[in-house]
Specification:
Uridine Diphospho-n-acetylenolpyruvylglucosamine Reductase, domain 3; Alpha-Beta Plaits; 3 domains; 8-stranded antiparallel sheet; 5-stranded antiparallel sheet; 10 helices; 17 strands; 28% helix
């Protein structure tokens, strides 16, 4: 792997010398996500493989070019999982792309987001230097947590070489229920349930039906089933359903109409925005397919303490991600300057002018 790292350093040095941008790419499964692509491709797939995995430690360390399907297969052999259920959007998805995009799936409402599971990283910065942050155990994560800072950074700070990710055992029992109800009732109910000791690992409302996944000990799942009611979904159908939300193969996501991802306080009432909606994470994540103006959608989200991302489709001219407050923009600019002083990595992918 030393030869691969040397090739990365040579590419970075040449880019700096010739003032050329580099676009960090693994499996390219999420090239559509974020602002417009710029720069020459820096392919990370040659730097692959699992570095360390001891199931008893509940941590897996892998290089950036490692396929996600390889990681999940290794974990499945020991009945473990990436608890934040990262979407793949294709079989070519890699560990580096997973961390850079920072996306989490249906189980995020119970387990936490991807950034909560990143324990340590190895990063190559804009000078070609190899930097180590965090570690392979929770007690090493202290101070300014650069490891988690890289989650969702879209490669703007540097080339992620390696990541140590916390894993969890798969639940002993799992069951999904479906209950017919309008959106406002579903939002009220999932927030009410959120304050109770129920083993809810995922919720989704769409087309006047609330679907709930229960995960945990068999007795706890049985008791919660009796309490919540509804119709039990066959295991195979339930697995396909949650996977269709994670990978956005569900019919709701079909078509070319702009897809917005709204991150809101979970207790926010049903939104009055025009368009079809799908609600996840106990009301904290709202998907919106709409032709409404970007300004209208973002203003509505901001007014209730949230933000809106143009996830797929639509015009990217004004930027995909929610505009940053001046103070936050300064932090981004300072971080970019510190890690990538020549501005060669993924320019504009996260923030248009960075």
């Amino acid at each position: 792997m030393e030869q691969v790292l040397k090739s990365f350093q040579d590419r970075i040095a040449a880019a700096v010398s010739e003032r050329r941008a580099l676009r960090i790419v693994g499996g390219a499964s999420k090239d559509w996500y974020g602002n417009a692509l710029r720069g020459e491709v820096l392919d990370t797939r040659a730097h692959g493989g699992i570095v360390h995995y001891d199931p008893t430690e509940l941590v897996i360390t892998a290089r950036c070019g490692t396929l996600l399907i390889e990681i999940e297969a290794a974990l499945a052999e020991h009945n473990q999982m990436l608890a934040f259920e990262p979407p793949h959007f294709g079989s070519s998805a890699t560990v580096g792309g997973m961390v850079a995009c920072g996306l989490s799936g249906p189980r995020r409402q119970a387990a936490g987001a991807l950034r909560d599971f990143v324990l340590g990283v190895v990063l190559m910065d804009g000078k070609g230097e190899v930097l180590h942050f965090g570690g392979q155990v929770m007690k090493n994560v202290a101070g300014y947590d650069v490891s988690r800072l890289l989650a969702g950074s879209m490669g703007m700070l540097g080339l992620l070489l390696e990541a140590s990710i916390k894993v969890l055992p798969r639940p002993v029992a799992e069951r999904s229920l479906r209950i017919a109800m309008p959106q406002h009732e579903a939002l009220s109910l999932v927030n009410h349930w959120g304050g109770q000791p129920l083993p809810i690992s995922a919720t989704a409302w769409h087309d006047d039906a609330l679907t709930v996944r229960l995960s945990g000990a068999g007795a706890a799942v049985d008791a919660a089933t009796r309490k919540l009611g509804g119709v039990t979904i066959a295991d195979a159908d339930a697995g396909a359903y949650w996977n269709s939300l994670r990978e956005q193969t569900h019919t709701y996501f079909a078509g070319t109409q702009a897809l917005w991802r709204l991150s809101l306080p979970s207790t926010t009432p049903a939104l009055g925005l025009a368009g079809a909606q799908l609600v996840e994470w106990g009301g904290a994540q709202r998907w919106l397919r709409s032709d409404a103006a970007a300004g209208e959608i973002r203003a509505a989200a901001e007014a209730i303490g949230g933000h809106a991302t143009l996830f797929r489709g639509g015009a990217k001219d004004g930027g995909v991600f929610h505009p940053l407050a001046p103070a936050v923009a300064r932090v981004h600019r300072n971080l970019k300057s510190a890690f990538d002083p020549h501005g060669i990595f993924n320019p504009g992918r996260l923030v248009l002018d960075l």
